[in-house]
Amino acid sequence: MSQLLAGFSNFFTFQLLFLSVVSVLGGYIVGFLPGLTATMAVAILVPLSFSLPAEQGLLILAAVFISAVQGGSVSAILWNTPGTPASAALCFDGYPMTKQGKAGKAIGLAQISSFMGLMVGWLFLVTLSPAIAKVALQFGAPEYFSIAVFGISIVAVLCSDSPMKGWISAFLGILITTIGIDPIDGVPRFTFDTVLLSGGISYVPVLIGLFAVSEVFRNVKAMITDPDFDKKQRETQRITDIIPTMKEIKITFLNMLRSSLIGTFIGALPGTGADIAAFVAYGEAKRWSKDKESFGKGSIIGVTAPQAGANGVCGGAFIPMLTLGIPGDAVTAIILGALIIWGLQPGPSLFLESSMLVNTLFAGFFVASIITLVVGLGLANVFVKIERLPKKYLVPCIFLLCCVGSYSIQNSIFDVFVAMFFGIAGYYMTNLGYHGSPFVLGMILGPMVEQNLRRSLIMSNGDPMIFLTRPISAFFLGVVVVSLAMAFKKNITGCKNS
Amino acid sequence: MRKEILRDQEIIIAFCFLVVAILFLSGGRNPLLQRGITDACGACFFPNLFAFSLIPLSIATIYFRIKAAPEEKAGGATPRKLVYFFLLAALASLILYLGGFIVMGLVVTFLLCRIISLSVKESVTLSVTLSIGIYLLFNVLLRVQLPKGIFF
Predict the structure, then answer these.
(1) Domain extent at residue A78
(2) Contact status of B19 with chain A (Cβ, < 8 Å)
(3) Cα distance from B73 to chain A (closest Cα, Å)?
(4) Beta carbons within 10 angstroms of residue A347's beta carbon
């Protein structure tokens, strides 16, 4: 505790505070812009941070990481365009809230739940790092496989209204991820012998296509068929309260806490990330909710769950990185590289040899979270005013941003084509009741399922019992079976009743 | 009746999924994928599993759609102007490749503005402002290398 207080006193200098504010603002804007991810922002900043002392450089990277994940929520809520992959799950309820004229409220709730996620993650980072890292190390390929299958089983909850269409979407998403070089054997799959497909299909252009481009198409259709569409839209849009009421906080508090814990835990597992956490948190929120019907139609819990989950990852991902030298996700992998270049060896020795640096980082993480909340709530009004601009001017702007966003991920023109293709496909699929969410879930979790399934079978010489003989894996598979059986029973009962 | 079935968007899309599944299954017949190098499954096991699962689901969707009442029409017609926009979106990457970002931005934004019935003056102003504004933001400020096109 005294070391943490010393970290705080070391942090509170004008220079570090100023750097935190600038980094948070920069990260927030990067997160807000579609296609620019937190990973990209941190990667760009790493060379710049080397000119600064380690504690300042680390703080900049951590602040950008936190704020970029949070910034992505705004474009997801306002335009159905996930700023970062982690905000994709926020589109399901955030955008419907905007359509109902509650954009301000949705942004406010997202900021509060992000803060909650960050604080829970921070608390675990500061107090239970070694213990959590030890548990995370128990996870091998069979456990990762079971967790990924558990994640995919959320489809049954996400698409309880049309399970068949949900599973079709999820399977298509999984199939798309198998295009490219096989991760275990290294042989090309379904590439039609073209170089373009050998790298596989990145999920960011697919996300942009399914959510943002298809929404542009829907808006264009509305403008073509109804000349007064723009006028009607602006009449329904009003700036609502941004700060959530105590009643709303009370309704969502438990859910935010659960989602934050899920995010922190998933963040602590090496090789995962905020995108997975957001989807799992959303699925669990729906699974536990008494009002499942409101999900996808602008539920406030549907807004707070993915955001708390995504930001819970920020603290969680630092745990294995600092305590074991194993990155929790892609961003912490970059920060780990930066640490090594600064001459610091992550692991238990870091806490002994560079205790002040670690505690200053903890203090910086805490203060940067508060700054991000203030910035997020402060800018919410500005963002909502942008949304009130006439759609006829916004739609071309969003379309161009989609093109740049999908291009900038890998500097590939093919990705722009992919975004447009999935935009058209998403337009028809959504019109016909195929949700984009299971598709994206399949794309995000598909590779994790496949790689860990095959790794596990290699470990066990082809014996599938490995998944049942390991307790953590068996537990998650058991939960999957129970939840699928319950969803199936509910569907059968629903069919009989109707 | 048969004409209506063939025009039903839900049946068409389910048929497309069926084709996708068959394409993946036929791709999985590649001997290189079937022989597992490091594991017994081989590289085709996982995609085959999901492609196989997709087939009955797609067939069931088509079946239930045909069985459904004819008045339950899904989707709705696509306006001609929207089809033009689809074409424009599909061509955007080609224009990006040939002309670079600024040219693509100018052309695509101008045509999109015309599709949504903005005046020529508004379309020109918006396309120039957006293309140059976004170029400056990404290329100059955020250092994202945007394509310059093969002619420049």
Answers:
(1) 2-497
(2) no
(3) 10
(4) 16
User: Which phi and psi angles does A188 have, rounded to 5°?
Assistant: -70, 140
Which residues of chain A are within 8 Å of residue B113 when distances are taken between CB atoms?
392, 396
Walking along chain A (498 residues) 10 residues at a time, the average pLDDT comes out as 76 82 84 71 72 82 84 82 78 85 86 90 82 73 86 74 85 91 84 85 83 86 80 60 82 89 83 79 84 82 89 82 72 77 75 80 88 86 75 86 84 91 91 82 84 88 87 88 80 65
User: A194 and chain B: CB distance < 8 Å anywhere?
Assistant: no
List chain B domain ranges.
Answer: 2-72, 80-141
Between CA A281 and CA A271 the distance in angstroms is 17
User: CB pairs below 8 Å between A and B: how many?
Assistant: 182
- Report yes or no: A421 at the B interface, CB cutoff 8 Å: yes
Strands (E), chain B: none
**Between A168, A189, A399, which is nearest B57 by CB?**
A168
pLDDT band at B74 (very low <50, low <70, confident <90, very high): low
Give pLDDT tens digits for A388-405: 778 788 889 889 988 888
The pLDDT tens digits of the residues spanning B100-115 come to 999 999 999 999 999 9
**Torsions phi, psi of A183, nearest 5?**
-70, -20
Q: Which two tokens stand for residue A210?
A: 């399914």
Interface check A428 vs B, CB under 8 A: yes
Is the CB of A28 inside 8 Å of chain B's CB atoms? no
Q: What is the ipTM, given to two decimal places?
A: 0.91
Q: How many domains does chain A have?
A: 1
